[in-house]
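Risk mitigation, structural track. In case the binding assays with zinc ion fail to produce interpretable data, a predicted complex structure has been prepared as a fallback.
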Amino acid sequence: MPSSQVLSLSLPDYAVRVSPRCKRVLIKINPLGKVEVVIPRGFDPCQVPAILQQRQRWLETHQAKLKARWAEAPQEHALRPKQIQLRALDRCWQVDYVPGAGRQMRLQAEGEKLQLRYPRVSEEDADVLISQRLQKWLSVQARQYFLPWLAQTAEELGLPYAKVSIRAQKTRWGSCSARKVINLNRNLLFLPPPLVRYLFVHELGHTRHMNHSLQFWQLVEQHEPDYRRLDAELGQAGKYLPRWVHV
Ligand SMILES: [Zn+2]
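Fallback model:
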């Protein structure tokens, strides 16, 4: 007799997504600890709980690691951060939260002080609304500071680009298309300035070489001799991101 009741007892909350490109079942845990199961088209979703149960130990270990990571710097990783440090700009904002009367989220900025008035909803909904509003604010900062910074770097290097846009990519710090359109991740704001500059040099290098060929790296080295160390560091730079950017 199948013991389906026991099976569903200790499973985490999860969402199922069907992906036509996916060839096998993938279990993903996002930085907030939410579980997503990606299944190929035609795969029976009823099989998902059994698969999750098989991977339960892995899931628990992974979620415990995340928890430990957020517990290390509770203030920085709070969903309502009291301060926001943007290392790229060498600036730090203090944030106040005030429950408001209206249904709208309102953000007021004065110097390095932010005040957020949030609607009277459940604490959990407020966390989400606040994180989203702060992310929007982040995009504005990124546009304001990165656009002139990139333009200046491009001029300095003699590597012009066609256009730049600020994105909220989950897995990339930046990209450059064949049409020389550069995308920059707004979360670069949390990184130390040398890493941001390296990313700029890297993407600008792609305006000339659309690959990672020897010629590309030679060009990068010409403008950033320390590129190997910086490239490795950029690969680990997710550690600089506070938890609320993942909501
Ligand atoms: Zn590249």
